[in-house]
Queue: 2 jobs
Job 1
Amino acid sequence: MSQTPRLLLIAPQQMQRTAAFERTAQLAKALQLPVHMVALDHLQALTLAGLFDSGQAEQLQVAYLQQHRQWLEQQAQPMREQGLQVTCEALWVTQPYQAIQQFANEMPLALIIKDAHAESAMRRIFYTPLDWQLLRDCTLPVHLVTEARHPRPRRVLAIIDVLRSEVQDLQFNDQIVDAAVKLAEQCDAELDLLHVYDWVAVYAKDTGAGALSLASGLYEALGAAQHEVYRALAERHGVPPERSHFIEGMPLQQICRFAEEHQSDVIVMGTTQHRGVHKRLGSTAEHLLLQAPCSIWAVKPPREPQQ
C-alpha cells in the first residue's frame, strides 16, 4: 500500500451525500492528498435477525455492505474525474472507534474527517459518542464537519490557550497555529488567531490556594503577561495585528460569538486526553462541537515517548 498520507472520510451509515463529502473533496484538492472513504455499518435489525437465522442475517449483511460500497463508489467518481485518487470500503463493525484505530495503525493518515453527529444530553450520560472519542483519544488530527457553506474554507479561526506556561503547552500552541496557518495557505483562506483570557477561571483557581484578592491587581498583571505571550506567538507566526485577537470573557461563549460574527468556516484548536472527572464532564472542544457555528479541526499533541 502507498505510504502517501491519506484523508480518511468516515461516511455516514445513511446513504446520503453530506457536508463531509464536499469538504473532503475540497481538502483533497487543496492538500493534494488521496482519499479513503469508509462506511462503518451496523444495523441493529440485522443483528437481531441473526439470533434466529444466522445464515440469512450474514447474507443480508454482505448484500448491504455491497450496496453501500457501490454507493460510495458513485460518490467517489466525481472526485476521480477531477484527478483525485479515491478508494472505498464498507465494513460491518460493532465498535467503530476501534475500527478507526485499526485504520490509523494500518495506513498513513493525515486527517480523519467525519460529519459531526449531535447526541442528546441523556444519551451522552450513558455512553461516549464517537465524535467525543475521536476528540479525546485519537492521536491523529480530526475534522468534524457541521456544515459546508463553503466546502473549501474561506476563513480559518485558530484558538490557543496561553494560560499555562509549561514548555509543552507553549510548543503545543505553536503546533496549533502552524496547522491553522498551513490550512489557510493551502485553501487560500483568511486566518484569525484568538485567545480568550478567562480571568474568572484564574481567580477561582488561585483563591482556592489562598491567593490575593482580585482587588490587588494580581489578575490584571496576569492578563497583561498572557497578552505579551500571545502577542509574541502571533508575531512569531506572522499573524498581523488586525487578524490577532485577545479578548476577555468566558471562552466557550466568546469563541462561538467570534466565529459567528466573523463567519468562520473552521475552528482549529488543540485537544488533549482527559481522565476521571474531566473525561466525564468533557473539554472545551467537546462543548464547542455542540455549540459552535462552524466545523471543528482538532490538533493533537505529539505522542509521549514510550517508557
Job 2
Amino acid sequence: MRTTKSQVVKAVEPITGQHMDTTVLSPATPTEFGPQQRKLLRRTIAGSAVGNILEQYDFALYASAAALIFGKLFFPSFDPTVALIAAFTTQAVGFIARPLGSLVAGHVGDLHGRKRVLVAMLLIAGISTTAIGLLPTYAAIGIWAPIFLVILRFVQGFSFGGEYGGAILMVSETAPREKRGFYTGFIPASSALGGLLSTVVLFAVSLLPPETFEAWGWRIPFLLSIILVVTGLIIRLRLKETPVYKDAEVKGKTTRKPILEVIKTNPKQLLLAAGISFGFGTLNYVVLGWLLSYTAVDLKVGAGLGLIALVIGYVFYGISDWVSSAISDRVGRRPVILTGGIAYGVWAFPMFAMVDTKSPVLIVVAMAVSLTLSGMIYGPLASLISELFATKFRYSGASMGYQLGQTLGGGFSPLIATGLYAATLASWSVAIYLVIAGLITAASVFFLTETAGRDLTH
C-alpha cells in the first residue's frame, strides 16, 4: 500500500483515559488514496452518519409531533391556532440553542479534535429525546409540562448545533478532495434517513386509536431513539481523528481562539454561508413542519396523508442530497446550489396550487418535488461550508455559518408561515415567503467563490 509519510503522536484516548500510540495517516493526494485510507473513510462515514441520523430523527420527530399533537397535550387551554403557534415556538427554542451548541462544539473541536465532540453530542441528544418521551403532559403537572418541554428542546438544539458541522468535517477531512462531494454527500443523505425513520415510526403509532395515541402512543417514537444512541456510540467510539486535523495539530497549525479568528478573518464567508442556510432552512421547515399541519388542520385531508407524503418526500430528499453533492464535484458547488434556490422560488406557487386541490396524488408529488429541490441545496452545502475555512477554525466557521442560518430560517419559518396564513387565510402569502427564501439562497451563493477541489490542508 502506498501512503504519505506516517507520523506517530502520543495521545490520551478521550474515552478510556489510557495512553496509547496512535499512527496518523497524513492527508492523501488522489493518487495515494489506498486501501487503508478507504477503510478509514468507510468507518468515518458510518460513524458520522449514524449520529446524524439520530439528530435528524430527533429534530424531525419533534417538528411533526409539534404539528400534530403537542399543542393539544402541552397547551390545552389555548385556542387551536394559538396552541399550534405555542407548539411551534417550543420548536423554535431548539433552533435558538443551535448557535450556542455550534460555538461550544466548534471551539472544543478546533482545539481538541472532532471525535470527542461528536461522542458528547450524541449522548446529549439521546438523553434529551428519551426524556421528552417520558415527560408528563399539562393535564398531569400543569405549567411545568411546557416548561420542561422547552428545556429539553433547548438541550436537543444545543446538541444538534454541535453535531452536524462535526459530522461533515469527519468525512470531508478524510475523503480525497476530487470526490469530496461524493463522500460527504452521505451525511446530508443520512439526514433524510433520520427524518424518514421518524416519520415512519410516527405514522405507525398514529394508526392507534386516537385516544391511545394521545394517551401514550406518541411517546413510543421518542423512546425508540435510545436504540440509535447505543448503536451510534458503539460505532463512534471506534473512530479515529481526521488526517487533516492531525496533520495541522502535529505541525502546530491550530489556534487557541478559533471563534474570534474566524470572525475576524472570514466574516464574508460566515455571512454568506448563513445566508444559504437561512434560505434552505426556511424552505425546508415550511414543508417539513408547517405544511403537515396545513394539510391536516386547514385542508382537513387527514394527518395520515401528510405523513405518507412526507415519507415519500424523504426518499426523494435523500437521493437528491447525495446525487447533487456528487454532481457538485464535477460542475462545482455554486451552480448546483444556485439552481436549487432559483428552482424553488419558481416552484413555490405551483406547489401550493397542487396541495390546495386536496388531491392525495398531487399532494405527494408536491412534497416530493419540494424536497428534491431542497436536496439540491442541502447536499452540496455540506462540502461547501467545510471548504470555506482553514483547518484551525473550520469546525467553528462551518458550524456557526450553518447554524446561524438554520436558526433564523428553519427555527422561525413554521411560526411565520402560521402567522401569514392566519392573517390572509390564503396559501399565496406563504408561497411569496418561499420565493423570497429561494432568492436569498441563490444570492448568497452567487457572491461566493467556487470551493470544489480545494486542498483542506492549506
